[in-house]
Amino acid sequence: MASPLPASIPATHAAIAVTVPGTPLHLTTLPTVPPSTNEALIHVTHTASTPLNLHRAVGGLMLDNAGGTKPFILGSSYGGTVVALGPSTTTTLSVGDKVFGTVQDGAEKEAGFQEYVTVPTWRVSKLPAGMTLEEGVTVPTNLVTAVHTVVADLGLELPWPVPAGGEWVPRQRDEVVLVWGAASSVGQYVLQVLRHWGYRHVLAVAGGKHHESLRGLGARECFDYRGENVVGEILGYLDKVEVEGGGRSRVPYIVDCIGSLEGTLRPLSKIAEKGSKVAVMLPVINVHAGQDREPELEMDVNKALPGQWKEGVELRGVRTHFYYKNEFLKNHLQPEIIPALLAQGVVQPNKQRVVEGKTMLERAQKALDLLRDQAVSGEKLVWRLADEEI
Ligand SMILES: NC(=O)c1ccc[n+]([C@@H]2O[C@H](COP(=O)([O-])OP(=O)(O)OC[C@H]3O[C@@H](n4cnc5c(N)ncnc54)[C@H](OP(=O)(O)O)[C@@H]3O)[C@@H](O)[C@H]2O)c1
């Protein structure tokens, strides 16, 4: 059973869609869905663009839209105000709360690029006091990605709540975690998660201008991926790492936050060794989209550089979409852990670049073009949906 729509809420609203990959984004109209039990109806005022929008809208990645005949609604994050709760909903949320969350794009009720979303309450985080929605929308998609990657793909523990009094120390506290693409949105959250849970031998690979801020997020050493000999420098560092127990990898944990065949996977294939787990953000980008260039994307990580990896390297393709299969993370990550990490100042939101434009469609398209042109550097693209507050 669903609650009726409040009288002030329109029966339909605007959403941003792609129908045929590679063509401009367009507006479509969707019904506003009354919330059922354990759902919230949210008036969305802010969202953030992510490379996934580009992979969908230009690359056609898993665009499940009946062969280009149906609009696919974009957007994996939303920020706004709760306007109704489903009947008998068990939640600490109230109407009027400012909230944000990560959702499944393509799912008509919940995709983020629309004026109203109807979402399960496990996909809602309350905005901590003193934080803006512009800051909030930079967080959920890639903080969930960071936690999911560390737990599901690297197999490292992140107990919650973190046992007080410093009693809990991760077994792998001093083992190397190499984060390639650490200045990306994903990378910044991976660093902050590892720091909070006490993993203290984290190496960051990122453009030189980001090194100082990445040290502030927990990186012990930084390497510049634009340097001619970056692989040699990292291998030189690993030569000095002392490993307890014979046969262990010197670099047992690697996160590739970019997934570029030539830009990240090729150099990592020279660094990973027997016993290294390499968690790669999917899709693998064989060719990046350009103004006159079609992207080439691959969802099977094992097709990346076959025969080029040392024996005993484990490649893992990250699929955050499935994080909810971990019941604990489903029930606690967005409603409880993310707001707490932000309120405690343990995690800082990404820097925001606000995308301006006369209409929401113009803002969505501008953000997509910036992603295509690889013009995003150490920041998150944020923009407004509805212009009026209710
Ligand atoms: N499968 C999943 O579950 C999942 C989840 C989340 C994200 N992803 C994917 O992960 C990728 C990253 O997402 P994002 O939102 O974090 O991206 P982003 O913040 O937009 O990435 C831009 C950053 O990447 C850096 N970069 C680009 N090429 C690099 C290279 N070769 N080496 C090191 N750094 C490089 C840039 O560095 P400069 O500042 O030096 O230009 C820039 O700071 C996307 O493809 C996204 O779709 C996948």
UniProtKB/TrEMBL annotation:
Keyword tags: Oxidoreductase
Domain Enoyl reductase (ER) as annotated: residue spans: 22-347
Protein name: Chaperonin 10-like protein
GO molecular function annotation: oxidoreductase activity, acting on NAD(P)H
PANTHER family according to UniProt: ENOYL REDUCTASE (ER) DOMAIN-CONTAINING PROTEIN, HYPOTHETICAL OXIDOREDUCTASE (EUROFUNG)
Keyword Oxidoreductase recorded: yes
InterPro entries in alphabetical order: ADH-like_N, ER, GroES-like_sf, NAD(P)-bd_dom_sf, Trans-enoyl_RdTase-like
SUPFAM superfamilies assigned: GroES-like, NAD(P)-binding Rossmann-fold domains
Pfam families the record matches: ADH_N (PF08240)
Keyword presence, Amino-acid biosynthesis: no
Family in the record: Belongs to the zinc-containing alcohol dehydrogenase family.
